[in-house]
Inverse folding.
């Protein structure tokens, strides 16, 4: 028997309502505990002093504080940290499994060099000297990809690339990049955050806030507290999920059209008669949305009735402290214009830089010489770059370094991404695990695991206020690994590239000092929080007004709704062994994953429950089995991200298929950013 997401949130993350504390569920948890402790690679339990040590969880797209329970100095369990502003005692499914991942059989235990079709062990001195010589020889033909947009290791790696004379520093896709670009389109500058805790009406346009969007632990705690305050949560999206299970209502909306609904709501509100002329550009904006997004057109595109749209608009205006969250169901892939639609709606509601509204946070201070700052990193598109390398439109780097990311698995245009990695002269992975990118690498310099190293995080996307967390090591490295920050600094020194710091600890101290935070207090578990928000001079649609483009239904294809379920993993982490028993019988059959569609859609395609099917999109093909679920809109197929691993370990390798293969990116002309949240696929019997 498995534990579904709703039960998991309620039992582990304090998530709120809807689960009954029955003996059956507690027996299930006991089975999980016994099962995991019997694995041969889990250390034998020792007896000694019990402590709870503050740490960071960065296994998903967010970063938040947790506490690690140790016995005799050895981590044994993870739990929420009630003293951390982004946790408040909550924990996500990946955080709950984090201690077990430290001993995972997929850990890379020492430096490795590609030797034919396999790897051979080498020493750290050999690995560092080799990379330094490769960088010297490469000159400016150096590139890096990071999946950690909150931490200072990314700054150090970007500094190394910058010192080598290259501007090829990239972050993996997230909603931070289009959100920052959308804010810039409206005349603002900074990181976009959301003060969910103080809103009294939360409209979630595609944002699976209690399942995968933003900081799930924080969102869950805010939702739990809201139940006593009468706060209303409305989810809008193509399918029911863990968020809809506990939200006040679900409004079905065609996949990828939530931003169109935002513009339709804006049109209704702009015509409501309430004076909003204090916003520069209001008159032009009101004229545009009235012409481009009349109710009947928005209703046709989204599948949301005109009456429902008018009702939502009225509730937003009357709410007092409404907040609109615009996102993709997968938490990535929207364009800047789509996020600008949500931002414009919040502006019309007077909910920018105010309590319970959208908050604009300052950028993190830059302390590493020659490193691209976060604003620059977010504007650099890794999907477009790798596609250009694959197509011959850009030169392949002589050295490609990858940290905290798995671009060989978790990118749209996946075949091109893999081809570009293969074209690179020398690929270096700093992964703690044998992921798909590490398996393609020429050199693996394994980063110490999260609890084995000093780490930090500045204001993850969605944070309602500026915050900075530093986490000291909980335990010495279990294997022959080294913290990536220190390794990169050592390699830079050997390559005669001075980054201005001798140790990663010095980098973190410098960032803390630049923020005005106390490093010594922070390593003891105190998070730095600020109430300072940079003033913004916003205007509605400062760029030329354009209509949001939406792929039209054609009667031959279905709208694909890729979804992220953290218990299955993330773009960084495969299925944790601890979480395998939480995957339900209706999510996998043997090694086949299930995708969802309703009975009417299945009937039109001549498909039945449990049929083996093939999904084909512009990016590639996937195989799955069909589950009939009436919580999905017509002509829509819901597919989970996180399966289809070709590396890692026996708990995730070969389970299901990789939905990223279906996603093809196009370029948003106004920003140059890749868009891939929406896709259409054909579905047929396999």
């Amino acid at each position: 028997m498995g534990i579904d997401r709703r039960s998991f949130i309620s039992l582990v993350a304090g998530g709120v309502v809807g689960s009954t504390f029955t003996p059956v569920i507690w027996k299930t948890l006991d089975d999980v505990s016994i099962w995991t402790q019997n694995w041969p690679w889990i250390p034998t339990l020792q007896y000694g002093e019990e402590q709870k040590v503050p740490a960071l969880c960065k296994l998903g797209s967010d970063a938040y504080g947790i506490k690690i329970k140790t016995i005799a100095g050895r981590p044994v369990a993870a739990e929420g940290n009630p003293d951390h502003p982004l946790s408040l005692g909550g924990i996500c499914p990946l955080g709950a499994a984090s201690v077990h991942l430290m001993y995972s059989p997929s850990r890379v235990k020492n430096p490795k060099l590609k030797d034919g079709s396999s790897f051979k062990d080498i020493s750290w001195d050999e690995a560092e000297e080799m990379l330094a010589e490769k960088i010297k020889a490469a000159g400016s033909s150096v590139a890096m990809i990071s999946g950690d947009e909150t931490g200072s290791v990314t700054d150090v790696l970007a500094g190394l690339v910058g010192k080598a004379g290259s501007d090829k520093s990239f972050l993996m896709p997230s909603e931070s990049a289009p959100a920052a670009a959308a804010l810039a389109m409206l005349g603002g500058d900074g990181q976009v955050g959301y003060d969910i805790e103080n809103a009294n009406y939360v409209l979630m346009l595609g944002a699976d806030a209690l399942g995968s969007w933003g900081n799930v632990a924080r969102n869950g705690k805010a939702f739990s507290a809201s139940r006593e305050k009468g706060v209303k949560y409305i989810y809008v999206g193509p399918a029911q999920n863990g968020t809809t299970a506990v939200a006040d209502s679900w409004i079905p909306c065609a996949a990828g059209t939530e931003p169109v609904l935002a513009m339709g709501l804006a049109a209704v509100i702009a015509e409501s008669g309430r004076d909003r002329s204090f916003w520069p550009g209001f008159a032009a904006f009101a004229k545009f949305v009235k012409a481009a997004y009349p109710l009947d057109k928005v209703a046709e595109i989204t599948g949301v009735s005109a009456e429902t749209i008018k009702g939502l608009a009225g509730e937003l205006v009357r709410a007092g402290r409404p907040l609109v969250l615009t996102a993709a169901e997968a938490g990535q892939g929207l364009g800047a214009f789509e996020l600008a639609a949500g931002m414009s709606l919040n502006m019309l509601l007077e909910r920018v830089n105010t309590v319970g509204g959208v908050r604009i946070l300052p950028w993190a201070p830059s302390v590493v010489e020659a490193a691209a700052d976060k604003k620059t990193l977010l504007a650099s598109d890794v999907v477009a770059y790798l596609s250009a390398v694959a197509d011959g439109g850009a030169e392949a780097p002589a050295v490609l370094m990858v940290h905290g990311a798995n671009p060989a698995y978790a990118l749209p245009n996946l075949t091109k991404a893999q081809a570009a990695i293969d074209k690179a002269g020398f690929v270096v992975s700093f992964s703690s695990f044998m992921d798909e990118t590490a398996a393609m690498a020429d050199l693996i310099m394994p980063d110490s695991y999260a609890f084995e190293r000093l780490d930090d995080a500045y204001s993850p996307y969605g944070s309602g206020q500026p915050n900075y967390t530093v986490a000291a090591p909980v335990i010495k490295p279990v294997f022959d690994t080294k913290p990536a920050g220190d390794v990169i600094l050592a390699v830079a020194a050997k390559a005669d590239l001075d980054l201005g710091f001798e140790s990663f600890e010095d980098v973190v101290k410098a960032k803390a000092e630049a923020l005005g935070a106390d490093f010594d207090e922070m390593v003891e578990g105190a998070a730095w929080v600020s109430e300072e928000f940079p003033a913004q001079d916003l205007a509605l649609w400062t760029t030329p007004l354009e209509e949001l483009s939406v792929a039209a239904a054609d009667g031959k294809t279905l709208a694909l709704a890729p979804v992220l379920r953290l218990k299955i993993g993330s773009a960084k982490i495969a299925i944790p062994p601890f979480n395998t028993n939480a995957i339900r019988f209706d999510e996998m059959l043997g090694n086949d994953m299930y995708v969802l569609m309703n009975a009417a859609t299945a009937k039109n395609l001549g498909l039945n429950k449990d049929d083996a099917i093939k999904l084909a999109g512009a990016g590639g093909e996937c195989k799955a089995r069909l589950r009939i679920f009436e919580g999905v809109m017509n002509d829509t197929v819901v597919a989970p991200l996180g399966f289809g691993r070709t590396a890692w370990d026996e708990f995730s390798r070969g389970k299901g298929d990789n939905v990223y293969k279906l996603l093809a990116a196009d370029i948003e002309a106004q920003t140059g950013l890749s868009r891939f949240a929406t896709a259409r696929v054909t579905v047929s019997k396999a």
